Predict the 3D structure of the following.
Amino acid sequence: MAKTSIITLGRFVICSLISLIIVSCSKNTDMVIGDYGYYLLFKHRPTERIIVFDESDLQHFDNLSCLDLHVLVTSEFREQIGYTIPQPYYIEGEKGIEQQIKDYLDPNGDKYNGSMPVIVEYRTEGCRQIHFSLYDNDDAFLTDLTDMARFHYVIGITSWDEDGMNLLIDTSKKLLGKIAIGSTIQEYLAYSPMVFAEARFIFPELEKSALDDGKYIRIEIELDDGRILTANSKDAI
């Protein structure tokens, strides 16, 4: 089982810069493109670990009162030239998938011709099962939360980066569109999907205080090859 680890400072810096750009721009069709607009930046990583984010350190464009969980499915960290600490690594892109995404997000070919990136991450491992379980501060199982979980906007509907989120690709490498906001885990799995790269889940029936007193959520993702990736919300970074 994979374990969570400390996220790199570089990702936080990039996210912060992108957030500042997003806040200063409104998302509308009259926005100037070209050198002042956006372009699609594809990133393909192998599915090797799960990272759970601490929501207090992330910029979202909504204000949820219910419990939510932000999950990144990513690669292991490796030593890379130019970095002093290990970084998650990328592998060669799937050109067929990337072309489908381009055609879906920009059917007229005139929306993403600028110089600022809209990051589109995708994975190509099939997803067999997803489970959310609640544990107490003594690591004792309390209840299964899987049926309560709903897919939500990863960053927010007004963010340009949201364009590259919640993409639904099945195991035949066909882009089916977007994961519908409010979808259940079973509705998602019914598409025989490749596992998401990044997702945000809400639990409408639970208040944020549900994780007080040391309680935490364990997420388990089983891949088609039999591997099970695991992370705990108490280890969020």
